[in-house]
Write a structure and sequence with these properties.
The complex is a heterodimer of chains A (110) and B (114). With 110 residues, chain A is mostly beta strands. Chain A is built from no helices and 11 strands. In chain B, 0% of the residues lie in helices and 56% in strands. The chains are: A mainly beta (110), B mainly beta (114).
């Protein structure tokens, strides 16, 4: 079945450093969504990317969708302790099902 | 109101018990979902209801029985569970069951099966 892999699995950064997580699919995605799950919390929708090569920004967060629509990235500039959590990409293929990536757990040290 | 509520927050049950998880949304969404999430893993889809009809069952064991009494409510009935069923059970809803719809997740029920 379709799988969506994310790297790295874990990332520890000092507050103020940048952070990037990468999401890769072996087959072309229809669209990709990003979710954040705080420790002990539930996934919260961040953004959706639909078009090839699309780039969207939310304050310190920059999201990209690859030209081939097989990969995506989330970049956080100048991390803060409030950025702590697990970031999941989630893609759809030719069905309605959302396939979650393996997730990247971010820890930020003050 | 973009809130999905779930009860109970925590549940401990024995392998012979019968219990139910409840989920409610008042956003007028027509699609509702059950996911299972094990520690340090992504959510895994279990069931999807669209317009109160079961549209996707991801080969979930029959000891899990979903029910959608109306467009705002979603239940998950549990019976004869196994310890490996211990997990966070997440409910979500979206406007429609179509690609690209944002899913809104509830806080989840943390289930422990003894």
């Amino acid at each position: 079945g379709q799988q969506v892999m994310q790297i790295p699995q874990y990332q520890h950064v000092q507050e103020g450093e940048d952070f990037t997580t990468y999401c890769n699919s072996s087959t072309t995605l229809s669209n990709i969504q990003w979710y954040k799950q705080r420790p002990g919390g539930h996934p919260v929708f961040l953004i959706q990317l639909v078009k090839s090569g699309e780039v969207k920004k939310q304050k310190r967060l920059t999201f990209q969708f690859g030209e081939a629509k097989k990969n995506s990235s989330l970049h956080i500039t100048a991390t803060q302790t409030t950025d702590v959590g697990t970031y999941f990409c989630a893609g759809t293929y030719n069905t309605d099902k959302l396939i979650f990536g393996t997730g990247t757990r971010l820890q930020v040290f003050p | 109101d973009t809130e999905v509520t779930q009860t109970p927050k925590h549940l401990v049950m024995g392998m012979t018990n019968k219990k139910s998880l409840k989920c409610e949304q008042h956003m007028g969404h027509r699609a509702m979902y059950w996911y299972k999430q094990k520690a340090k893993k992504p959510p895994e889809l279990m069931f999807v209801y669209s317009y109160e009809k079961l549209s996707i069952n991801e080969s979930v064991p029959s000891r899990f029985s979903p029910e959608c009494p109306n467009s705002s409510l979603l239940n998950l009935h549990l019976h004869a569970l196994q310890p490996e069923d211990s997990a966070l059970y997440l409910c979500a809803s979206s406007g429609y069951q179509t690609r690209g719809e944002t899913q809104y997740f509830g806080p989840g029920t943390r289930l422990l099966v003894l």
